[in-house]
From TrEMBL:
Domain named TPPC8 first Ig-like: residues: 606-748
Domain of life: Eukaryota
Protein name stated in the entry: Trafficking protein particle complex subunit 8
Gene3D superfamilies: Tetratricopeptide repeat domain
Any one GO cellular component localisation term in the record: TRAPPIII protein complex
Domain TPPC8 second Ig-like: 807-926
Domain TPPC8 C-terminal Ig-like: 1118-1248
Length: 1295
């Protein structure tokens, strides 16, 4: 690329060009003012030549042609260094006027980042940057150390109206009027002079002017004089299609049109004048001066000899003046001549000659420590390198060297440093080094805030144009710039830069800087009166949860002030205060499904569906409901909509959150809805809100103007960081189509609204069982088809407790209402946990709770076993004659039992049908849901061991532990379920629990005798006397002082709950002769019960144990039957005694049994006992008649107090066969005869035998037995060896 065609090249061709000083009389200005222009302004457009085509020959004999050329015209009063304060004020005016043009752009939205990256540089950069940079460069003009601003010629202008025009020409060059550069000796006063006579055609003909011109030529020379006639247009209405002065009037067009008195001939005369003056006077003069100076410099300074001579001379001098101004150099010094030669060659585009002379003089200035002149030469060397398109490294080195040197000079070099930096920046931009250019912008920022603001803004665009774009640095420097604009009261520029920064930070996670930008933009817009835009930006910082509390209060206070200053209400979409958690959105509506409470509506739909499967009737061929059929009858546009009933509310639960740490008031919260009865008629309605159980909130009900819906509005306040669920409702009154559009609220007069269409809805909508459908828009879940009113069942359980102890049984009442005049019928009910809730009998109401549970002595029970009509899967069918309508409720008894300690969730579904056959809905369901916290109470466990002396008798040990945290209990009753078992105590009542209650953490063990009431055939044949106490199904455990009636465990509700417990632990009604069920009845200690409760209402607890096994691990059990006492005269012979062993096989397999006897009673110690009680005494001999009398009395206490007496030989022998082998069928018994011979009186333990058994594996019985082994409670072996049970026989000497 041609360097002259770059932005820097164009700037250099405009700024580093020959200067012509203009000296004029007031009459000349008067003639020019008629055109709205000064004399210099009138000539300036014609001083820039794009193709002047003048041949030149400077240092070499090879000529070249000059094409582009420009003259800069200045009045003599302007040829001086600008005043710093005046220059700053001028720059401030430029920046302020640039901001005035930004009004329309300030109101528009900031651009997107993608648009920034796609836009061209010219579109993004403010247009006034270029003009401002030129003004900054010109602040360093007319320095004495630089000669390219020194005038090369002087244009003396006199009007034909002036008296004695020749004398006026002579007086023009009076030293009192000339600039200081000429008077101080900084520049050569011998410059080119050209004399111009201006004639105003409005003053008459040009004859006088012609005479004056002739006189001028005779005085100053023919070639140096010229006549210019202007204002040829008499009516001053001349319009120029191409206004040549437009670019020279930055302040805008004045009231008068520019050049209105200049016709075409005048403009041609102006062009010819400046072209002739440039090509025939200025350029030849400069060419001649360059050649002369070049010859002088070549003779004195070039060559090795001259360089050594100059270096030797400079080293021999004393230290030169180190003043920054460098006033030691005059225009006649060789250094100044070399600088003039370089500058003139540069302006004539001979850059090689210029660079050579700059190099030559650079060393001299450095040695002389003339740092300002040295920096100026380095600056020009860099520009020469750039225009020659030579070493970039050298160009950047020289430019940086110049820049740093200017900065070292302090305030005197600040303007020159700024100019040098701007040229350096343009050089880097030309080479696409935008990042490096931005750093230079940052370095030329001064302490002056406005100057710094402009530089930082231009630096930000360099970061944007870099490759790749550095967006964050772009935004950060814009913020720095905007902050400085604000400090200098340039509010519009501050807004502009902050808005541009917002394009970057709007989509980032840098929340703090984003809040800073929005907050200050809002403040500044409010200062300018744009309250609408100010409020919009302030709304973006309201939800600043990440900020400190003080910052949040500041944001909120300023927002309220700006809002009050606006004086009107704003509707703000997506208002972030409060924040709506759209993920919590839940829509609850009632079609065929209705809910008794909001708690029931919050249950997941899949759970309700599983309960409804056996309630809702199915259509032929598919499991479906009425809604699928109904959908086919709907119009196509409504098939994807939900269905609701007119007059029934639709609830929308939304969570509002206050992101701030300060409280905020929210009012008029409501839904936004659309209700239409046809496609053509659509009416907008507002929905209502209701807060979930907040006593401080204020609720009111209003109606829409159309009366088509019933609405409610809700006001509430949110504390710092508080979340609140708000239940918004809308109740349509007419049939049609209802659409939920969004939600609106009011915050401090600002109306915020949130539309559901703007988000992707996370569906948490309670929906019924539908067929699988094609994927549809989430917005269809917010559209409803409103049908005509149908009956709706309302219900609840009265006084349902929140907490209860485990086992507690309570009576409840289910209350059902139908407010409609249309009756409902065919009611059905299903309960999720029958273990906890049982349905009572309507015919036997539990008004008298005690009478329902007491067991009457005459067997006439106060309650009967539940005989309710049930369908499959536990569905309860209400009587067919039950119909509900009007104000009369249906009351139905229920029983609640807290079965196990847990947080219990109860679900109930009631199905009902419409009596009106014309109703769109044929049936509906009512869903009820309750929570119950069950606390621990008594923990009960049982251990059963068989009795060794009797079949079908067992010892029961019951362990009870009070695991409650604060409640004491009284154990009242233990019952066996069914008629197969009887139970009796082994301990006296008063000795069971001395304190009569179980306190917290206390444990007790109870012992009972359990007997089967199924009398075996062996027992019936032998008529064995029953030594066990009387047995019954119930045992009272409380002492006699506590008078509590027996509880009937075989009737409702205990029987129902026990059936549920059996279902929980096994198969319902499973018949197993070896298992027994227990029910323990307890009551809380009256002193621990709540004093406010009714003392007449009994507190009853039931604890159920199911499938407690009575059989041991061995399937073979036996007992020895025979006499316990025998009298015999041993003097005559030994005593033979006949015995019988009854053996029972409780398994389902054939058992092979072997019995082996041993004469020595001590041998039985070697075998372990596998069941029954341990032996107390093995062998006792009668030592005296007293002892014999005690033994004959059969006192167990006496027997246990005697000690065994060892015998060296066996006192008895088994006289039968020593081993018996036989097979025993499944679940059968047999008798084995046995005999012993006793040789002396005494008490003998007949346990000296071993029983071996083995179950056969050749039939299915063992397979069934092996299957039972999977249950740890029923584990049995297939073979085993058992020692004999203790059997004590007392033989006495007869008299």
């Amino acid at each position: 690329m041609d360097p002259a065609g770059t932005p820097l090249g164009k700037m250099l061709l405009e700024e580093i060009t020959p200067v012509v000083m203009v000296l004029r009389t007031p009459s000349v200005e008067e003639a020019c003012v008629k055109n709205g222009l000064s004399f210099v302004e009138m000539l300036s457009p014609f001083c820039n030549f794009s193709n002047i085509d003048v041949p030149l020959r400077t240092s070499s004999d090879q000529p070249y042609r000059l094409h582009k050329f420009k003259l800069r015209l200045f009045y003599e009063s302007d040829v001086r260094q600008p005043n710093i304060e005046v220059a700053k004020e001028r720059l401030k005016q430029v920046i302020t006027k640039a901001g005035e043009k930004e009004n329309l752009e300030l109101i528009s939205d900031p651009p997107q980042v993608s648009n920034l990256l796609d836009s061209s540089k010219s579109e993004l950069l403010p247009s006034w940057f270029e003009y401002l940079n030129k003004e900054l460069i010109r602040t360093a003009s007319f320095s004495e150390h630089e000669t390219f601003d020194h005038p090369v010629g002087c244009l003396l202008v006199v009007s034909s109206k002036d008296e004695q025009p020749i004398n006026r020409f002579i007086d023009h060059f009076n030293t009192n009027k000339l600039p200081s550069l000429l008077n101080d000796g900084a520049m050569d006063p011998k410059i080119l002079k050209h004399y111009l006579l201006v004639h105003d055609n409005h003053d008459g003909s040009s004859e006088k002017a012609s005479k004056i011109l002739s006189e001028m030529k005779s005085t100053f020379g023919t070639n140096e004089c010229h006549l210019l006639c202007i204002n040829s247009s008499q009516d001053a209405k001349m319009e120029h299609q191409d206004d040549p002065w437009a670019s020279y009037k930055y302040d805008g067009s004045p009231v008068q049109r520019l050049g209105c008195c200049l016709d075409v001939d005048d403009i041609s005369a102006l062009k010819d004048l400046m072209h002739e003056f440039s090509s025939k006077h200025v350029i030849p003069y400069m060419e001649q001066k360059v050649r002369i100076l070049n010859q002088q410099v070549s003779a004195t300074r070039r060559g090795f000899r001259n360089q050594i001579k100059n270096l030797w001379w400079r080293k021999g001098k004393d230290d030169p003046n180190e003043m920054p101004s460098g006033s030691m150099y005059t225009f006649s010094s060789i250094e100044s001549q070399i600088r003039v030669l370089g500058d003139h060659a540069f302006m004539l585009h001979d850059y090689e000659l210029a660079l050579a002379n700059y190099r030559l003089i650079s060393t001299d200035y450095k040695l002389d420590k003339a740092w300002k002149r040295y920096a100026g030469v380095q600056e020009m060397m860099a520009l020469a390198y750039f225009l020659l398109d030579q070493s970039r490294k050298e160009a950047e080195y020289c430019m940086e060297n110049a820049f740093n040197t200017y900065l070292k000079l302090g305030s005197s070099g600040q303007q020159n440093a700024t100019r040098c930096g701007l040229w350096w920046i343009e050089m880097l931009k030309t080479r696409d080094q935008y990042k490096e250019a931005a750093s230079v912008y940052f370095r030329i920022c001064s302490e002056e805030l406005l100057h710094s603001a402009v530089m930082l803004e231009q630096a930000s665009y360099c970061y944007l144009f870099s490759k790749p774009p550095m967006l964050y640095k772009y935004g950060f420097h814009l913020v720095l710039s905007g902050d400085r604009y604000r400090k200098t009261d340039q509010i519009k520029h501050a807004i502009r830069t902050y808005r541009s920064a917002l394009s970057v930070y709007r989509e980032t996670t840098w929340s703090y800087i984003r809040d800073h930008v929005h907050f200050h933009i809002g403040q500044w817009y409010a200062l300018l009166g744009f309250h609408d835009v100010a409020v919009r930006h302030m709304l973006q910082v309201l939800a600043c949860s990440h900020q400190s509390k003080a910052t949040q209060e500041l944001f909120l206070r300023d927002f309220l002030q700006i809002f009050q200053g606006a004086g009107k209400t704003f509707e703000v979409p997506g208002l972030q205060l409060p924040v709506i958690d759209i993920s919590s959105l839940k829509v609850v509506f009632e079609d065929q499904r209705t809910y008794a409470s909001s708690l029931a509506a919050s249950v997941r739909e899949s759970l309700w569906r599983s309960l409804e499967e056996d309630l809702i009737p199915s259509l032929p061929g598919a499991r479906t409901n009425w809604l699928d059929v109904q959908t086919k009858l709907m119009p196509k546009r409504l098939r994807e909509s939900n269905v609701c009933v007119a007059g029934e509310a639709i609830k929308v639960v939304v969570e509002f959150k206050n992101p701030l740490q300060v409280p905020i008031p929210i009012s008029n919260v409501s839904l936004i809805c659309e209700l239409s009865r046809s496609e053509e008629e659509i009416s907008d309605t507002n929905a209502s809100t209701s807060e979930l159980a907040n006593d401080e909130d204020h609720q009111r009900v209003v109606s829409s103007d159309s009366g088509s819906v019933i609405l409610s509005e809700f006001d509430f306040s949110l504390g710092g960081g508080e979340k609140k669920l708000v239940e918004l409702t809308v109740t349509p009154k007419l049939e049609g189509t209802l659409k939920l559009v969004g939600v609106r609220w009011k915050f401090s007069g600002c109306v915020g609204f949130y539309t559901f269409e703007s988000i992707l809805l996370v569906k948490k909508i309670a929906r019924g069982k539908r067929k699988a459908k094609a994927k549809q828009s989430p917005l269809n879940d917010l559209k409803f088809v409103v049908i005509k009113p149908v009956p709706k069942l309302e219900g609840h359980i009265r006084s349902f407790p929140e907490k209860a102890y485990a086992g507690h049984i309570q009576p409840l009442i289910l209350e059902l209402k139908n407010q409609s005049n249309c009756s409902i019928k065919n009611l059905k009910m299903k309960i999720s946990h029958p273990r906890f809730l049982s349905i009572g009998n309507k015919e036997v109401p539990h008004v008298d709770f005690r009478a329902c549970l007491e067991k009457q002595s005459d067997n006439k029970q106060g309650g009967t076993r539940a005989n309710l009509k049930k369908a499959s899967q536990g569905v309860f069918l209400f009587p067919e004659d039950v119909a509900i309508k009007g104000d009369k409720p249906l009351l139905w008894p229920l029983w609640l039992r807290a079965a196990v300690p847990e947080n219990f969730l109860l679900y109930i579904i009631i199905y009902y049908e419409m009596e009106d056959a014309s109703s769109v809905m044929k049936y509906r369901t009512l869903r009820l849901h309750y929570n119950l916290q069950v606390l621990p109470s008594l923990d009960v466990s049982f251990k059963i061991s068989p009795c060794p002396s009797r079949l079908q008798e067992f010892l029961v040990r019951m362990d009870v532990v009070n695991k409650a945290s604060s409640q004491s209990f009284q154990v009242s009753q233990l019952s066996t379920v069914g008629d197969n078992w009887g139970i009796s105590r082994l301990q006296p009542i008063d000795g069971i629990i001395p304190s009569q209650s179980l306190t917290v953490g206390q444990a007790f063990s109870f012992f009972f005798m359990l007997k089967s009431r199924r009398l075996s055939s062996v027992d019936a044949a032998t008529h064995v006397p029953d030594l066990s106490p009387d047995v019954d199904n119930d045992v009272i455990l409380c002492p006699g002082s506590v008078k509590e009636p027996l509880v009937n465990a075989t009737h409702s509700p205990l029987a129902n709950f026990h059936d549920s417990e059996r279902l929980q632990h096994g198969i319902h009604n499973q018949k197993d002769d070896n298992t027994v069920d227990f029910v323990l009845i307890s009551r809380p200690l009256k002193s621990d019960t709540n004093s406010e409760e009714d003392s007449d209402q009994p507190q009853l607890f039931s604890h159920h144990a199911c499938y407690c096994r009575t059989a041991s691990t061995s399937p073979i059990s036996w007992t020895m039957i025979g006499p316990r006492t025998k009298y015999h005269n041993f003097s005559s012979s030994f005593c033979e005694i006949n015995l019988k062993m009854t053996i029972h096989n409780s398994s389902d397999a054939i058992a092979s049994i072997s019995i082996s006897t041993a004469d020595s009673a001590g041998q039985s110690d070697a075998l372990p006992s596998q069941g029954g009680w341990k032996p107390v005494v093995k062998e006792i001999k009668a030592a005296s008649p007293k002892a014999a009398g005690i033994i004959a009395g059969n006192s167990p206490e006496s027997l246990s107090s005697l000690k065994p007496v060892a015998s060296p030989v066996s006192s008895f022998i088994w006289s039968g066969s020593s081993s018996s082998n036989f097979q025993l069928g499944p679940r059968s018994s047999t008798d084995i005869p046995m005999q012993i011979c006793v040789f002396s009186p005494g008490t003998y333990d007949l346990s000296s035998y071993v029983l071996n058994w083995n179950l056969r594996q050749d039939d299915g019985g063992c397979d069934q037995l092996e299957a039972k082994e999977s249950n740890p409670e029923e584990t049995r072996k297939l073979s085993g060896t058992c020692s004999g049970y203790p059997y004590f026989l007392t033989v006495l000497q007869s008299v």
